[in-house]
User: Fold this.
Amino acid sequence: MKLMQIEIARIITTAIESAQEIGALPHFAPPEIVVERPKDPSHGDYAVPSALQMARLARMAPLQIAERIVNFLEETAYFSKVEVAPPGFINFRLAESWLVQQVDNVLQRGPAYGCFPPQKGGPKKVQVEFLSANPTGPFVVGSGRNAVLGDTLANLFQASGYEVQREYYINDVGTQIDHLATALQVRYAQALGEEVADPKEYAGQYLVEIGEVLAEEYGDQFLHGDNTDFMRREALSRILNTIREDTELIGVRFDRWFSEASLYTEQTYDLVYSKLESQALLFERDGAIWLRSDEDDEDKENVVVRSDGRPTYFASDIAYVWDKLVKRNFDRAIYIWGADHHGHVKRLKGATEALTLDPYKITIILYQLVSITRDGEPVRQSKRSGDFITVREVVEEIGSDAFRFMLLTRSADSAMELDLELAKRESSENPVYYIQYAHARITSIFRRAKEDGATMGGGDVNLLEHPSEIELIRQILRFPEAVRFATDNLAPHQLTYYAQELAAAFHAFYRDCHVVIEDDELTAARLKLVKAAQITLANNLHIMGMSVPDQM
Assistant:
């Protein structure tokens, strides 16, 4: 698929080389050609500011450079106008005669429109690891943002031609899991009528319910003695099953559930420890084993093995990086963490370098917290647990599509608010319904066309000339660019902005241009256009992980 931004960059580069060959421009290595979309549509569809960057290299005024580049541009059918604007921009306006022809191209691509083939040499392998909180409780709304970001990002990479794996990293070793097992033992005993104090940690209702189930299934079989291993297995198994069910409620499915314990049972940790030791990167202090750091050997977070001989979470993280980049040979590993883990980013990058691996293969996205409100008022209590709000509770109230869309509308590094009443409102106030309504409206147009015997067969797209038709085509053609930009910049929230602009263009077209009319030829052409819009809306909704309704 040809992206116009890439094509314009190629045309500009060729023009510079041609101008340099005959001396119209001095010889210099041009900077990367940046192709932007102007904020003001009167400036055209694309703008290139490169002449401003070249002024120092060429020792010429930016306007003069831009004018000479334009003089050497090759002729194409793409543009109706190319002009130079102060202080040195080259502005491109797409030709309407070329624009309308792209409708047929969209129809030919169908479900693949907006998607890219694998790069030369085969698809690169990308792993997106997300939602990997300690499995010590239900799937809560804060983690919901993690899940939606990770899943949508994985969808984007797939659409961009990568081989993608979605992974949940199960923290199934360590003190937190031991405390969980202890808390479940208490709830199990209470379910059997024993008078024991409530657990100090993990006191939510969810463990009360698991304890009651265990009491019903096993009686008092595990009431006495050390049953920590049993309680650990039962707690992990049942909580993970709940997380699986709840992630599927919002359309999230993982390709692999990776056990932290496997890093030790499969000797990955031992291998990594030996590698670091052989490079003299480990040292002992206060009875613990530390990873040597160029910046701060006093940072307690650099401890690899505690003084009691137990590996730290950092030790697992180091082994996990090796597993991803070496054992499974991913070209890129993306982590999605809460913003409270910001201190771990540099540490993990440093550990990757210590293993003589490329730290640029590691990308860590930090996301901010989500607050829940109802008509602007904070919602603090959960009916079920009393101390947190689960994803299941929210999705049962507002639906999966509204939940996903609202959590995607801001960049990951922005704190956000999820208003339950707004999310439930099926109106233009809630953007997801506004977008889905555009798709449903198109379905109704085709139902009407079928009743009237109208088809898009043989439709001549050259008949499309109304300003609202042309604007809708312009928005449709932005979709591949939106996909590529969101992928390259790890910015899935950009899809929500694009979807709203596309839906607005369609609704304006629907207002201004009746589709099924007495003019059969124009009807056929407009049916082609609305089909192209329907394909684009559906493909965008699919990447965002949302349903594509035929009626609302």
In short: Residues 520-543 form the longest helix (24 residues). The chain has 20 helices and 14 strands. The chain has a mean pLDDT of 93.
